[in-house]
Design a protein that fits this description.
alpha/beta, Rossmann fold, 2 domains, 13 strands, 46% helix, elongated
């Protein structure tokens, strides 16, 4: 069966999933990327070089020069439609539903009578469209839920999102969103001595280290973590902030004078396990987090988790057994959560152990299996 999968950019997260889908399904899989990279991504386009397991296409590079000048998405859409007409795949998997290439692929599938599945990380708690945008979204997604052969839900908040737009139970399939758990566990263990040496160099060895990993933008709430950390005893607590973004300078000003708050800057994906190995807990107080794969990474690395209850990953992966679920976006609540984990070593160890156990059911093989099951089950109806 010829299956075409459309997604935005290559990342270290999706490549092993696509590889596993291709190997386990027996499909002739083509993965089309809208763009080889984007300005906000920390990963090079070379990550998605041709794979022996599946065919890879960079749609933005297939358009003619004048189309690329007008815009990546226009060039990618023209290239995608040309490929669909030429190859006429038996099934489409479309990651997302809003971008021009995604809309074009979905409309093409409906017009051509080709079965399709929609896969994404939309979260019912982050679904904030209002007014005319809300009405247009309801019309479009209501139409899609009726016409799609399958809607692949990566977690509970995503499933509830589709249900809110009229998705029927028989069209909803679970595919647990995942990272390579073994990679993070192995790499963290192998580089623990390196992590200990870095803690010594930074002058924060012997403290309970909290870590934030992600973009430095307002919606992530990194300022709340800094304010909470500054209230806790500096001799017992440290905070490492991994990532970059437009808020970095403002956050550094906020943290000025706190030697126990470290800005690591952007870190290559292969080096993240070292930073997780330096920490005892991940903190993610974001108010608009569709999923939050850093939660998966941190749990695979054996960290306790502090995250807001509306973060997609929190709904399925975080509870009192392995962390603290935040009910609000307040410095007081965050300070209390960090203080609890820092002050009770036995509790922290139990949370870390539970994180390692709980994440095992959210694996790359399980994610790939869910996608394959969704496609093949929808063919039987």
């Amino acid at each position: 069966m010829r299956v075409l999968l459309l997604t935005n950019i290559p990342t270290p997260y999706n490549i092993p999933v696509f590889r596993r889908v291709s190997l386990d399904s027996g499909w002739r899989l083509t993965v089309c990327y809208v763009s080889s990279t984007n300005r906000e991504a920390a990963w090079p386009g070379a990550l998605a070089g041709t794979s022996p397991e599946y065919e890879t296409r960079m749609l933005d590079q297939e358009g003619v020069h004048w189309e690329r000048f007008l815009g990546t998405r226009l060039a990618a859409t023209r290239a995608l439609l040309a490929r669909l007409r030429a190859e006429t795949p038996d099934y489409l998997i479309v990651c997302g539903y809003r971008g021009l290439p995604q809309v074009a692929a979905l409309v093409w599938a409906i017009a051509a009578g080709t079965r399709f599945a929609v896969l994404g990380d939309s979260n019912i708690y982050a679904d904030c469209a209002a007014g005319i945008k809300r009405r247009l979204k309801q019309c479009w997604l209501g139409f899609l839920t009726r016409r799609a052969a399958a809607l692949i839900a990566i977690g509970t908040a995503n499933r509830r999102f589709w249900e809110s737009y009229g998705a029927r139970p028989e069209k909803l399939f679970h595919a647990p969103f995942a990272v390579d758990n073994e990679l993070f566990a192995r790499a963290g263990a192998a580089r623990r001595a390196e992590a200990a040496a870095m803690l010594q160099r930074l002058g924060i060895a012997g403290r309970t280290v909290f870590i934030y990993v992600g973009r430095l933008v307002k919606s992530k709430g990194v300022d709340l973590i800094i304010r909470a950390a500054r209230r806790l005893p500096a001799a017992g607590v440290a905070l490492i902030i991994v990532g970059d973004g437009p808020e970095r300078q403002a956050l550094q000003r906020l943290a000025r004078g706190s030697a126990n708050i470290v800005f690591a800057g952007p870190v290559a994906n292969q080096d993240l396990p070292v930073y997780y190995a330096m920490a005892g807990a991940l903190v993610l107080p974001s108010d608009r987090e569709p999923w939050g794969l850093v939660v998966n990474e941190a749990m695979a690395s054996g960290l306790a988790i502090i995250a807001h209850r509306h973060c997609g990953a929190t709904v399925d992966l975080v509870g009192k057994e392995n962390g603290v679920v935040l009910e609000s976006f307040s410095v007081d609540e965050l300070e209390a959560a960090m203080g609890l984990i820092a002050s009770d070593g036995l509790l922290r160890q139990r949370m870390q152990s539970q994180s390692r156990q709980a994440i095992q059911d959210w694996s790359i093989p399980g994610f790939a299996c869910g996608i394959i099951h969704a496609v093949e089950s929808s063919l039987c109806r």
